[in-house]
Amino acid sequence: MSSSTSVQAPPSVRSTDERRLPWYHLIFTGLAGLLVAVAVLSIFDALSVASAILLGFVLHLLFGWLYSLLREGPRWAKDRLMTLLVIGAFAISMFPLLSLLWAVIGRGLARVLAAKPDPFSFWTADMSGIIGGADAGGVFHAIVGTLLITLWASIISIPVGLFTAIFLVEYADQGWKRTLGKGVTFLVDVMTGIPSIVAGLFGLALFIAFMPDQSVRMGIMGAVALSLLMIPTVVRNSEEMLRLVPMDLREA
Question: Distance between alpha carbon 12 and the CA centroid of its chain, in Å?
Fold first, then answer.
């Protein structure tokens, strides 16, 4: 009879697995780094939130790497160090967004709650006949204006972009149509990189050139400017979707 034998892992593998640290040890090294940073900055009378976070993160990298080096070995210590660097880079990249959201929500919420006669009127009142500071009126006109401008921009952009994509996929395959298709593709690529401020100035200048009163401002100006930014996106997305359709379905 054959007896089954269990295969034992090499001692080096077992020792490496046993020395692996749990994930929450990074919390303790982070707290230790923050406490040491606060103590050092307090001694030199340079304590602030930004300096404490910055110095604490540097010490967190050092403590986490040293502790992992002693317990896990150089290989896993490098892994822990790179993990902390990636987490730190992500936190730094998120800081501007979070600070912006904090400022917008903090200041905007105070304005909404201060609306009279009740906070709900901030969303239903407009600026018609309002003379005074920024604490009067509401945003109803801005909401309606945004929806109307987006609607008119869609009415302009969707047909133009869809028909352009159909031409590029179905007809721009040979002869002068192929040359025209290359030119259209080049223009679409150029329009993709147009800054929004340039599109806005174009929409403003286009109507001012034909207006006797240059102080006139209309929503169609914003719709034309927005359509310049929407058309390349509509063309590209429609073109990709049409190319995914099998040829037999196109002919059907």
Answer: 46
Domains of the chain: 15-113 (no CATH), 140-251 (1.10.3720.10)
Are the beta carbons of 101 and 124 closer than 8 angstroms? no
Residues 141 and 218 sit within 8 Å (Cβ to Cβ): no
Q: Which two tokens stand for residue 52?
A: 């404490």
The answer to whether 185 and 235 have CB atoms below 8 angstroms apart is: no
CA 106: distance to chain centroid? 21
Quick check: 218 and 207 in contact, CB under 8 A? yes
Phi, psi (degrees; rounded to nearest 5) at 72: -115, -20
Residue whose token pair is 């230790």: 32
Backbone φ, ψ for residue 90 (5° rounding): -65, -40
Residues for the chain: how many in total? 252
* pLDDT tens, the chain, 252 aa long: 455 555 555 554 445 455 677 878 888 888 988 899 999 989 888 888 888 888 988 998 898 899 888 888 888 888 888 988 898 889 888 988 998 999 999 888 887 777 777 777 778 777 666 666 556 667 888 888 899 999 999 999 999 999 999 999 988 888 888 899 999 999 999 998 889 999 988 888 888 877 777 666 788 888 999 999 999 999 999 999 988 888 777 776
Burial of 4 (0-12, 13-18, 19+ CB in 10 A): exposed
Quick check: pTM over 0.85?
A: no
Q: What is the DSSP track for 73-119?
A: -HHHHHHHHHHHHHHHHHHHHHHHHHHHHHHHHHHHHHHHHT-SS-T
Q: For residues 36 and 52, is the Cβ–Cβ distance under 8 A?
A: no
C-alpha Rg value of the chain to the nearest Å: 31
